[in-house]
Amino acid sequence: MIKRFLQTFSVVPMAGWLLGAFVAVLIEIYFGNLISYYLYLPKIPVLLGTLVALRDPALIPNVLAYDLAVYFIPVLAVSLLSAPLTNALAARMQKMPLWAATLIHIVAFYAILHLWAGISDYRVLVVKLTMISIILTVSLNIINGYQGEFSCSHPGFMALGAYTSSVLTLVLFSNDKVFGEALLPAALGPWCFPVILIIGGAVAAIGSLAVAIPSFRTRGDYLAIISLAFMFIIKSAIENMEIIGGPRGLSSQPNYASLPMVFIWMALCIWIIHNFTTSIYGKALNAVRDNEAAANSMTVNTRRTKMIAFMFGAFWAGVAGGLFAHVLRYVNPGTFGIQKLAEVLAMVYFGGLNSIYGSIVGAVSISVLGEALRPLELWKWIIIPLILILVMIFRPHGLISFTEIDMKRVLRPRNTAEGER
Fold first, then answer.
1. How far apart are CA 218 and CA 291, in angstroms?
2. Mean pLDDT of 312-327
3. Model pTM?
């Protein structure tokens, strides 16, 4: 029965699912308060009602009824009923360049996400942090997945990017009690922010040389040891620098990390890293991972390849750190410790190694699950590790490993013989 049910929706293309999600979001915007009122819910549920259900289990039936009425039934009904129209649209877009069709779908997805998140400030925050987690996870997968090493230094790279970008925005565009009067007009800040993020990423990439140069001269688990030491060195160094707040942290960063800004950087990260991993460097990286001696004998400069990949991953971790600091508008060295490392590693290995698609799934799953289980407090840190243990037992390489994003397959129509192939 389940197989037959799923087969019913096999004719729905990506455009159909987007249309269904758009209708569901409109229903929630215009009728969400009314539906929640008649279902005796205190307000519109934030994350599919999990927070409400965990705080008051008696409301679980009400939450399920809300999700069915607002999300599941409208999405399934609209996507299925509109399949002929959306398949015709998908067939027409197949004649367009792939980049143009992909861009149209990305813009449509962002519009839906923007409307959905705009219902609540908490949703906006969760979406921003989830997208930053995607950048972190995809960048770490370059090293731990495609390169086949085990790095623990990503929180350190993130800290370098966060503090570099924070200091630059505070010095250049903010009247701060620590750094004094702004050197440039505040109106230039949002326009210069992308450049500042790139500078933060570059500082993280340069800092990664402190790990890469000594560790890549050795073999085995030395990278994990050196990278872990690097993370603690960066954290301790920041704690002892009073000019940037020391252990108290740095606050009052300008609010430059808007939802579209974070989304654009996430999309750029996924696109650029996908191109990197499918390029000659990516193939060389896979060869080094599988057999370094054989790759070296086939004229692959293994040390140079590993250095480039390591610095590339560190750059995007620095960009993620800069976005993180300006989303929360506060940064503290304690944030970039062992807990952040465990969180990012969990996302990478839960989603799947050697797969950008798996990294996205892992980051979204762990981030949303962590927020959804927040009312359970300490029990949350028992449930999530148990889920990870089960995944490691039954799927040792993660949920979706060694799988690349194929946009031609994702965007194709589903009702034609060509689409079915």
1. 15
2. 95
3. 0.93
Q: Are 332 and 255 in contact (CB under 8 A)?
A: no
What are 347-360's pLDDT values in tens digits?
A: 998 888 888 988 99
Query: What residue ranges of the chain are covered by domains with CATH 1.10.3470?
Result: 121-408
Q: How far apart are CA 222 and CA 372, in angstroms?
A: 37
Q: Which amino acid is at 107?
A: V
DSSP 400: S
CB-based contact 419:376 (threshold 8 Å): no
> Distance between CA atoms of 56 and 64, rounded to whole angstroms?
13
- The whole-number pLDDT of residue 73 equals 95
Instruction: Answer yes or no: CATH 1.10.3470 is held by domain 121-408.
Output: yes
pLDDT tens-digit series, residues 68-98: 999 999 999 999 999 999 999 999 998 899 8
DSSP 231-278: HHHHHHHHHT-GGGTGGG-EE---S---HHHHHHHHHHHHHHHHHHHT
pLDDT in tens, 139-184: 999 998 888 888 889 999 999 999 999 999 999 998 877 788 888 8
Listing DSSP states for 20-58 in one string gives: HHHHHHHHHHHHHHHHHHHTT-SS--SSTTHHHHHH-GG
Q: Which amino acid is at 105?
A: H
The answer, yes or no, to whether residue 421 has pLDDT greater than 80, is: no
- The pLDDT confidence band at residue 417, using thresholds 50, 70 and 90, is very low
Query: What whole-number distance in Å separates Cα of residue 395 and Cα of residue 231?
Result: 29
Residue 90 corresponds to which amino acid?
A
Which region holds residue 44: left if phi is over 0, alpha if psi is between -120 and 50, else beta? beta
CB atoms within 10 A of CB 81: 14
Q: Are 351 and 400 in contact (CB under 8 A)?
A: yes
Report yes or no: 143 and 305 within 8 Å, Cβ to Cβ. no
> Quick one: which H or E segment has residue 330?
strand 330-331
Burial class (CB in 10 A: 0-12, 13-18, 19+), 264: middle
Q: What's the CA gap between 344 and 335, in Å, rounded?
A: 12
H-helix or E-strand spanning residue 143: none
Q: How far apart are CA 330 and CA 332, in angstroms?
A: 7
220: pLDDT strictly greater than 80:
no
Residues 381 and 392: their CA atoms lie apart, in Å, by 17
Distance of CA 187 to the CA centre of its chain: 29
- What's the gap between Cα 239 and its chain centre? 27
* Residues with Cβ within 8 Å of residue 368, at least 6 apart in sequence: 47, 126, 130
Strand positions, DSSP E, 147-284: 250-251
